Amino acid sequence: MFLFFRRSVVLQIQFECLYDGMCEVNFNIKNVCKCCRFNKCIQMGMNKNKVQKPRGKYSKRKELMQSNTPSPRASCIIHSSNQTFVREVEYDCNEFLDQFIHMEYMTEKRRIILTGSNPLLILRDPIQGYSVDKSYKIVPFNFKQFNACVRNVCLLSFDYTTSMPYYNTFNEEDKYTIFRGVFFLTCILDSSFFTYKSGLYKEGYYAGIEGMVSSIYDDKYGWETEGNITREMKLTLLKPIYKNIFESLILPMANLNMEAWEFASFKGMCISNICSYDFSIDGKKKGKKFDNLFIKGLTSGRYKNDEEMSVRVGQIILLMTNLHVIYASMVEFFTRLDVFNLIELDSVIKALLNRTPLCDLDRL
């Protein structure tokens, strides 16, 4: 904290919080909003007047700031003497990981606004912490409701994707690849984490998006016939996928007692890993950079000791081993629904399944 505070005072940086100074600042989340981090320093007793005058490299950097050159380390909006700059941030491993944690916190808040029974509760505590909304009305899984909430998932995926570190450095096709990965992984991973955190897994239930539940170890709930899709077709095509998700993701999350910030890190790693197969050459290089930053961020003092770190990080990485199979199975399932015209899928899913080029989207 001290070096950050001293650097900010010496360079006379004025940070601006995008959320009215309500961001959480703690050991695990300290680099998301530098405005709130700076204010926290003041609250803890640090004094701007006692910071030494700049010498050496800091003196040169101050001159650059005063000549309207923005700091490459600023993560918020920065105001110099007469100009405002918004530029791509260069993240260290902790700032990088903190951004993904913040993104996941905000995703859950937005989900509460879209589907929660009391969305105004987020105004009481708009950003701090992560809590799974348990106010969903639990209903059996059905494709009609799934189609109805696809656009909500699309909105959450868009906000998540465009908030990613270095997003603006990817080309258009790679951005599309990221969005596709985020969309399908949001359906898989967010549902898995919700099932674990809500405790529904203890009853043998898998909770899909917006609280649509299917029983895993019997056929009593969520497997009803829907139009052209019979009960037998659901059990044959979909149940093996759900059971794999349940046993390969949800139960290990529960056994690990996965924390929300660990899930946010895990989700980011999964997105990077899945998308890397379809990235351009330049995108693959950025994907490797993402992988390195994730690992460095997870192993940079966030756990009590090295033993805990090695065990938990190892288990988190192991969770990714079956993800490619689950992801491919889920995409194949929806492709079959579309090809055989079993249900009318939302156009968003159709475009993502068919990998419709960006230049052709306006023809849909």
UniProtKB/TrEMBL annotation:
Protein name as it appears in the record: Nuclear receptor domain-containing protein
Keyword Zinc (UniProt): yes
Coiled coil: none
Key word Transcription regulation present: yes
Single GO molecular function: sequence-specific DNA binding
InterPro entries noted in UniProt: NHR-like_dom_sf, Nucl_hrmn_rcpt_lig-bd, Znf_hrmn_rcpt, Znf_NHR/GATA
Residues covered by the NR LBD domain: 102-356
Pfam families: Hormone_recep, zf-C4
Keywords noted in UniProt: DNA-binding, Metal-binding, Nucleus, Receptor, Transcription, Transcription regulation, Zinc, Zinc-finger
SUPFAM superfamilies according to UniProt: Glucocorticoid receptor-like (DNA-binding domain) (SSF57716), Nuclear receptor ligand-binding domain (SSF48508)
Positions of the Nuclear receptor domain: 1-53
Source domain of life: Eukaryota
Gene3D superfamilies associated with the record: Erythroid Transcription Factor GATA-1, subunit A, Retinoid X Receptor
Family assignment from sequence similarity: Belongs to the nuclear hormone receptor family.
